[in-house]
Amino acid sequence: MAPTLHAAGGHGDVHAVALAGPHVDSHADAAAHGHGHGSVTLPTALNDYAELEAARAAELGVAELGLIDKLKVRAVADPINWIATLLFFGAIMHTFAAGPFIKLAHKFEHQQAKLAKNDARRYHQGKDPVSFKATCFHFLGEIEAIFGIWLIPLMLCITVIHGWHSATDYIDTRNYTEPLFVVVIMAIAASRPVVAFAESALSLVASLGKKSPAAWWLSILIIAPLLGSFITEPAAMTIAALLLGHQFYCYNPTPTFKYATLGLLFVNISVGGTLTHFAAPPVLMVASKWDWNMPFMFTNFGWRAII
User: Fold this and answer.
1) pLDDT tens readout for residues 125-137
2) Domain, as residue range, for 168
């Protein structure tokens, strides 16, 4: 159902039509795809926005809307757009606050430990009282949990605005192949046979330097990232980190050298995964769309990565 606008309607009319237009189309799309119960297909189709933006441009007497006007139309068309944007920026800011949250958690843990030390009561092993505030801040400081935490208010907002079935349909229609692929690959890469094989391969290179710590350091930071083009970047990162722990960090280098090594590993892993079109997640996402194959990757990016 294409929305219509009257030029004399003013902002109130365009806002009303913008709010109703994509919802009506989304309901029709949901019914066409078998989503019952009056659910709304999320995210809203771009064609719906194009019609609304064209109508708004006609009302303003311009050929095309500017960026700000487009954002305004889309924000009015579906409030989830601006709500999700704010929640996303909230999650980004939360990642920067993870460190202070952990420090607060440790502070409350120490306070609880002092209270427990001065307490005359005795508890069974493993039943010592814990600080609820410390536990909460510890959870808020877990990097892996941050975006999952902010997903909760997003799903609540979708449920309130569009209904429970729209929220569940949104979850059911996501593609979880890539995150599951990364988890499985990292689990396999951390298994003993794969680590032993990689260590043997890197050992051959390190033997050129008589397997000294410096030789291991160079082989891990040079060869392991290149292996990432064949066993995927997550696998190469996992194996390189494990081998650095076994062959380098056990010698307790200076903190500066430790962090510099990690930073160099991150950079090399990112560069080393460009020899093929299936190993690096960023390349994998665009390879099929842009027809990038292995010869293309090696001739355009791979040989430069090796150098």
Assistant:
1) 656 678 899 999 9
2) 81-174
Tokens of 188: 């396999």
pTM for this entry: 0.60
Q: How confident is the model at residue 190 (pLDDT cuts 50, 70, 90)?
A: low
Q: Rounded to whole angstroms, how far apart are CA atoms 232 and 102?
A: 32
Name the amino acid, one letter, at 239. I
Nearest to 190 by CA among 137, 135, 236, 125: 236
Residues 207, 123 within the same domain: no
pLDDT higher than threshold 80 for residue 241: yes
Looking at the structure, tell me whether residues 64 and 42 fall in a common domain. yes
Same domain, 211 and 270: yes
Residues 64 and 164 in one domain: no
Residue 224 pLDDT class (50, 70, 90 cuts): confident
Q: How far is residue 125 from each of residues 75, 106, 110, 129, measured CA to CA in Å?
A: 55, 21, 19, 11
96 and 115 assigned to the same domain: yes
Burial class (CB in 10 A: 0-12, 13-18, 19+), 217: buried
> How many folded domains does the chain comprise?
3
